[in-house]
Amino acid sequence: MATIISRPKRGDIVTRRIADKTPVYFQLEGFILEDIDTTIYEIVGVVAGIIDNQVLVCYKSQSGGLKWTERCEWTLGGYTLDGTARVGKLKLRRDTAGTIDKFGDVEFPYSATTEQELCDAINAVFVADEVLAERDFYAYTVDGVVHISCAWSIYNDFGYSKGKTASENADGFTLTLKVLDGVSYSSRMRHANGAPTGEGCISNIERAKVFFLNDNTNETYNPTTETTARRTYPLCLPAYLGKSPSRLNADGSQNDYCAKLREKYGEGEDGWLNFLRSLFPVIPCDNGVMGVKDGKRRTASLAVRRYSSNKVSDGILCPAANYAYSITTNTIDIGEFWMPTLRELYMLIKDVHYGTNSNREADILNKGLKAISATALSNSADLWSCVRCSSNVAWYAVGSAGFFGNYNMFSAFAVRPVSLYSL
Fold first, then answer.
1. Cβ pair 331, 42 in contact under 8 A
2. What's the CA gap between 349 and 371, in Å, rounded?
3. In the predicted model, what is the mean pLDDT of the chain?
4. Counting beta carbons within 10 angstroms of the beta carbon of residue 198, is it exposed (0 to 12), middle (13 to 18) or buried (19 or more)?
5. pTM, entire model
């Protein structure tokens, strides 16, 4: 029998009363979906936890792979608007591989007295050039500033597209990177061991135990020099034990770079698990990204951004944010759900066993989701947060490895929307 409760816990069922949109919580124990009168209650999701006397709601569905942002963007400089015939140059990617040696000079003849005339001349080249047209390069002006953007599909757009120096071209254009201007970012995430910054905090230890159980040749996860206790990234178990087959000398002798770690955290697999726990994020924490609390505002500011180009008249610039922001139902208004902050994402995923365990009821969150016939939350999923890490990357939960990382914002990861309901 479905029981209404006032103080829900993780895994309990979240509904809203259709008449007045008031949240109503049902205890997971004994819950039967068929007992719920859906003319009175709308099923919303499940409880992921409690934050500051608010219920963190995990929405019943999630997206497929969506980009954080669709476009790489720069501002243009180095031009002269005096009506004289000139030729500006840029170095832009010339093929789909986008390796550094495949970037070619592109010339832009122009004779302009206004920024719009300059944009028209640049766009004429973009449309006529088959490669650049395919990649949807586009010039436009906002408040007297000329912008260049392109469909973002590879890191090298960000890293290697550039202007020419004055010595290379007296009339040369310059490019200044301006991706999502005004959206703040931070790379600081404090680890329990005291490390203050960077990737590597454990998001889901069940997934981390699986990924790092076996030998790994990557020096990030299997060091080649003596390591210290304040590690940023997890290490594979053979490296921790000092028995990695990848760290043998030519004569077969073993290199051991983790003795200091074992002194601190203990020997054997138990010591390794203690070490992994030292990489948990510090929560709550005012220092760095785990202190971000304005997921609703951040998501809304991203979701409403649009773009135009030679191919698109009115495009969604930030699809991941737009998906969460746009959820509307009989009881949910637009903007009531958002991409999770890092703290909210951690609360969602940290105790999830489904993924490393095939049983949908392997953890309480997925048991609740199964009870309402909702989409499972797997610890193998790459999940975006609403928090930007640097100029070209944003924070996400790395589904393959079980830690928090950052990746290029053109990447397509899943979004699990969340909301906070006051108790």
1. yes
2. 18
3. 93
4. middle
5. 0.94
